[in-house]
Amino acid sequence: MPNSEILHRFNENRDRFKPYGLTFEVWIPDVMRKPDRHNEIEINFFPEGNITYLFQGARVTIPPKSFALFWGLVPHQIVDFSESAPYFVGTIPLSRFLEWRFPVAFVDRVLKGEVLIDESGKYFHYDKFLFQQWIDDYAENRGVDASLLEVRARLLRMADRVSNTKASGTIKISDGEISQIERIALFIARNFNHPIKMADIGHEAGLHPDYANSVFKKTFGLTLTEYITQERVSQAQRKLISTDLSISDICFECGFNSINRFNAAFKRINNCTPSEYRKSFSGFI
Predict the structure, then answer these.
(1) 31 with 51: CB under 8 angstroms?
(2) Is it true that 7-171 and 175-280 share their CATH fold?
(3) Which of 15, 48, 152, 260 has its CA 20 to 30 A from that of 270?
(4) pLDDT > 90: what percent of the chain?
(5) Which of 269, 201, 203, 204 is nearest to 235 (CA)?
(6) How buried is residue 2: exposed, middle or buried, by Cβ count under 10 Å (0-12/13-18/19+)?
(7) For residue 20, is pLDDT > 80?
(8) Integer Cα distance of 134 and 25 in angstroms
(9) DSSP 207-254
């Protein structure tokens, strides 16, 4: 990798849901104190070492020489990595990804929150060359259209390779492997669609509810109530795009107990109503 390459790290101070836009970059892995979320499709390619994400209530380990894809709106957080080796990251606006008209099964798995992993070493040198070319084209503002054609072609090949696989690389996490904070995040991810009491969270983590809230906010920068609301809105966004469910059904399926509260929380986070959000993606699916 060129010594002049700009290496990026996750910025814990970035605004929630702030878009990355169309990017191709080289990153250095860091254990993240809070999850990232953005409304682009994220591509990861790991020439060396592996990275483990906390993703939708499970640990997902992406092995070396693998090409991975997921929807960045689903909270994702690096909790472990094998070595500090640079890796490639690309972000593709969701609207562009949907315009590319990939196979329905492939898009459905992405929008349902899976991490899709192409582990074949067959494309290792090809992927490394492509990603470096995309980075160069993007940095020099030339050949971007050609790069996007190559990205689409690479994802089409990936769709063919992973469409028939039964697993997405997800490894269920056991209680003995996780910290108290991680337990809280997992508990919320698994129970966001049910009423959640602070006492339930405290019991799960083995902490007094007030102390659990204090520790959680110190780690993630959000109160437990704010984090739960964020999780529910994130799930609602996915359902608004990927299902035909009514907005009221989505509201209650995502754990809100009234339409008014759902609308208020959704607009506060997205600066638009649920119906406006759904309409902005109409015609893509």
Answers:
(1) no
(2) no
(3) 152
(4) 50
(5) 269
(6) exposed
(7) yes
(8) 9
(9) S-HHHHHHHHHHHHSS-HHHHHHHHHHHHHHHHHHH----HHHHHHHT
Please, which pLDDT band fits residue 1 given cuts at 50, 70 and 90?
Answer: very low
Cβ proximity of 42 and 67 under 8 Å = no
| Residue bearing tokens 């993630």 | 220
What CATH class is the domain 7-171? mainly beta
Q: Let me know: does 222 contact 230? Beta carbons within 8 Å.
A: yes
* Tokens describing residue 141: 């503002």
Angstrom CA distances, 234 to 58, 87, 196, 275, stand at 17, 27, 17, 15
Determine the Cα–Cα distance for residues 17 and 220; give it in Å rounded to an integer: 15
pLDDT tens digits for range 224-264: 999 899 899 988 988 898 889 999 999 999 999 999 999 99
DSSP-assigned letters across all residues of 134-176: HHHHHHHT-SHHHHHHHHHHHHHHHHHHHTT-S--SEEPPPGG
- Both tokens of residue 173? 């996490």
Q: Where are the domains of the chain?
A: 7-171, 175-280
- Which homologous superfamily does the CATH classification assign to the domain defined by 175-280? Homeodomain-like (1.10.10.60)
Per-residue pLDDT tens digits for 229-240: 989 998 898 889
Terminal CA-to-CA distance of the chain, rounded, Å?
38
Report residue 202 as tokens: 């405290």
